Amino acid sequence: MSPYALGGFVLALLPLLVTPGASMALLVRHVVDGGRRRALGVALGTATGIGAHALLAAAGLSALVMRSAEAYTAVRLVGAAYLIGLGMWTWHSVRRAPPTKGGKKSSEPRGRSVYGQALLANVLNLKAAAIYLTLVPQFVDPGGWVAGEILTLATVHALLTTAWLVGWSLVVDRSAHALRRERTRRMVARVSGAALVAVGLRTAAA
């Protein structure tokens, strides 16, 4: 793969990368609740989802799903339902959180739970699949090792996404004192939940 193709892919990807979505909503929610350590679960889950889309694209399975109206609709609706459900859970999570010492509430999920939420949010996101069906082929040499080039671009995509999410986690964590006040935590939970529901509704309507 030529450096020009790689550079062109990065430039084309950046506008999509900085557009807020489900991963960003999850990141803000979890960092406010549990600090920067939870950002790793969100970033790794998202990166794994990117890798899954790349593998499916390399195997030609993504194209089959996108060409089948029934399969496309099924995946779209499952993804929408998951995001809407996750958004509703996020909205109510602070209220349900058990009290801890000192009377504060905590909604501490396990690291695997944070990772799993981010992974499913990405894998069930057809916008992410579309990147590997519309954008990536423009930078792949048909005469070369196509699968290898797709995975190379996916690695770059995953690294950039991880850096973007980790960078934002530092910004959010620096505002932790204000953001972790009970009233603010509730507001963040509701805004994050509403954002996830909105993404889910947009996915369902696509």
TrEMBL record:
Regions crossing the membrane: 6-28, 40-65, 71-92, 113-133, 145-166, 187-205
Classification via InterPro entries: LeuE-type (IPR001123)
Assigned keywords, A-Z: Cell membrane, Membrane, Transmembrane, Transmembrane helix
Places the protein is found: Cell membrane
Topology of the protein relative to the lipid bilayer: Multi-pass membrane protein
UniProt cross-references to Pfam families, sorted A to Z: LysE (PF01810)
GO cellular component: plasma membrane
An example molecular function term from Gene Ontology annotations: amino acid transmembrane transporter activity
Keyword Lipid metabolism: no
PANTHER family assigned: ARGININE EXPORTER PROTEIN ARGO, ARGININE EXPORTER PROTEIN ARGO-RELATED
Protein name per its UniProtKB record: LysE family translocator
Organism: Streptomyces alkaliterrae
Taxonomic lineage from the root: Bacteria, Bacillati, Actinomycetota, Actinomycetes, Kitasatosporales
